[in-house]
């Protein structure tokens, strides 16, 4: 029998995959994360929220290692990130030792509220951007 966390994960990811993400990917100012599919080798684009601080971009994954983009990062941590309409390359790092709830307080309020409300396994991710 599925527990609450499994049901919540299934409901939220189904909504994101079929409705939320297709709409958000089309918005010109939406931050996008491009990973390489761990099985297909194809680019996978996911709308994300977070904040650039210096030469790094910080975000919190609401489902931790169950998130598809986190699984892709574990297989290949080279990523691309679209910020304010401009693409950057970088290296993603998973930071399980970071306090994800404290990190959310440093990130954009609306996205952080959604991640706190629907997330079950929070995981901090830092993307170190390549020099231009």
UniProtKB/TrEMBL annotation:
Positions in coiled-coil regions: none
SUPFAM superfamilies: FMN-binding split barrel
A Pfam family assignment: F420H2_quin_red
A single GO molecular function term of this UniProt record: oxidoreductase activity
Protein name: Nitroreductase family deazaflavin-dependent oxidoreductase
Source organism of the structure: Nocardia pulmonis
